[in-house]
Write a structure and sequence with these properties.
Strand content: 5-15%
Order of helices and strands: EHEHEEHHHHHHH
Distance between the termini: 46 Å
Strand order of the largest sheet: 2-1-3-4
Helix content: 40-55%
Number of strands: 4
Number of helices: 9
Largest sheet: 4 strands, mixed
Shape: globular
Structural class: alpha+beta
């Protein structure tokens, strides 16, 4: 009897959940995608995550495991709990594994900065803080520089991927983050500024699991407060 699928609660454009979706697909772990907007009145998010944030990994009704939340932790959960299902998505030695997880944290931090910047821009003009928006923009610039450094370092060592010889959660995080920058036109001209990062992004993002999970914008029907 086939195991019942997991449920990943997400929002359609989410780069956070995209990381988890790619990992689940690569490991061939059955799951269903449940889309919702966590700040709307009918949201089910608080039922599963006290922080009221997506994504959330939920197990079937007969599975006693509690929901898993926060995208970086979900990614760690997937690669460690399902380590017996290939691909590993981690290099396999402690220092490299820790570096891969650090790159995931960097990606998630950049995603957070993009979201914070976007919501600030949606406030009434007289309520917006330009200093706050500038700070988020610096975080995004810093992440792009760091991503490019990782790509260049890998190239110098003759590696296709950022950490180790195979695709890992580090590559997934960087491509999902840069993909959201591209999707939202957050940093026009980044491709010209970082051509090696652009080449790496296009190559990895062209994989089937990445193409299947590219973001799609949702319609906001309620005001965020």
């Amino acid at each position: 009897m086939a195991p019942k699928p997991l449920t990943l609660i997400s929002a359609t454009p989410s780069p956070f959940a995209r990381m988890n979706r790619i990992a689940l697909k690569l490991k061939d772990i059955p799951f269903e995608l449940q889309n919702e907007i966590p700040w709307e009145s009918q949201t089910q998010t608080p039922k599963y995550n006290p922080l009221e944030k997506l994504p959330i990994l939920v197990f079937p009704a007969n599975d006693p495991r509690p929901p898993v939340y926060e995208s970086a932790h979900i990614q760690t959960y997937i690669v460690e709990k399902y380590a017996d299902k290939g691909p590993k998505l981690l290099p396999g030695d402690l220092d490299s594994d820790l570096l891969a997880k650090q790159i995931v944290v960097l990606g998630v931090g950049c995603m957070d900065a993009m979201v914070l910047n976007r919501w600030e821009a949606r406030r009434e003009k007289e309520q917006q803080s330009q200093k706050w928006m500038d700070r988020q923009s610096r975080k995004i610039d810093g992440a792009l520089r760091a991503f490019n450094d990782y790509v260049e370092a890998a190239g110098k060592e003759g590696r296709e991927y950022l950490v180790g010889k195979e695709l890992s959660i580090a590559d997934i995080a960087v491509v999902c983050t840069v993909g959201f920058i591209d999707f939202g036109e957050v940093k026009p001209g980044w491709r010209e500024q970082y051509p090696k990062l652009a080449q790496y992004f296009d190559r990895v993002d062209g994989r089937e699991e990445f193409k299947e999970t590219r973001p799609v914008m949702f319609d906001l029907t309620e005001k965020v407060v």
